[in-house]
């Protein structure tokens, strides 16, 4: 089944997305269930594509990992998933220190047997548009410090909409 989104755009009359849904219904689109949720838009799809591209650049670059004293302790490439976990965790710490914690921050929980602590990182899918924009700026800042080579030229002149 093809999925369609009818988003309410800023400044748009609320009847417009319902007209689009009605048009789909008239086309005979058959669904088993339909859920309509009205809520503010979180981060944008273009932001998500942007920071995933940047995280991919981190993973393609030989970047030295330093200990607290500035000594190189590792220099291997790691997967985008590992970089994302590290970068999101660090971004959350930076935001806390700045006095602007993430709306949906990470937390810890115990393992099923209660013997281990598990760190649950913040989910980038829950970032607000502002947090997504700040995360992108953070990625550029950290990447510049680590001499990451940016490969996707579409995003080199990125500006928040």
Tell me what you see in this structure:
- The chain is 39% helix and 8% strand.
- It is mostly helical and 161 residues long.
- The strands form two sheets. A two-stranded antiparallel ribbon has the order 1-2. Strands 3-4 form a two-stranded antiparallel ribbon.
- Helix 2 crosses helix 3 and helix 2 packs parallel to helix 4.
- The two termini are 32 Å apart.
Features:
161 residues, mainly alpha, NinB fold, two-stranded antiparallel sheet, 39% helix, disordered C terminus
Summarize the structure.
The chain has 161 residues and is mainly α.
The coarse overall form would be extended
The CATH superfamily title of the largest domain: NinB
For this structure, the CATH topology of the largest domain is NinB fold
Please list the strands of the largest sheet in the order they lie side by side.
1-2
Give the helix/strand layout.
Blueprint: H1 15-26, H2 45-59, E1 65-66, E2 72-74, H3 80-97, E3 107-110, E4 117-120, H4 129-145
Antiparallel strand pairs: 1-2, 3-4
């Amino acid at each position: 089944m093809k999925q369609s989104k009818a988003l309410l755009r800023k400044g748009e009359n609320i009847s417009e997305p319902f007209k689009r849904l009605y048009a789909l219904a008239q086309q005979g689109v058959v669904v088993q269930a339909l859920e309509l949720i009205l809520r503010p838009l979180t981060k944008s799809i273009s932001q998500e594509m942007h920071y995933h591209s940047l995280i991919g650049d981190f993973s393609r670059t030989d970047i030295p990992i330093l200990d607290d004293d500035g000594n190189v302790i590792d220099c291997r490439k790691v997967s985008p998933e590992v970089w994302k976990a590290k970068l999101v965790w660090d971004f959350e710490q930076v935001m806390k220190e700045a006095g602007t914690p993430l709306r949906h921050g990470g937390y810890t929980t115990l393992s099923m047997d209660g013997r281990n602590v598990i760190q649950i990182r913040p989910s980038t899918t829950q970032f607000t548009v502002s947090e997504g924009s700040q995360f992108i700026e953070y990625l550029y800042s950290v990447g510049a410090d680590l001499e990451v080579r940016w490969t996707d030229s579409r995003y080199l002149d990125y500006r928040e909409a």
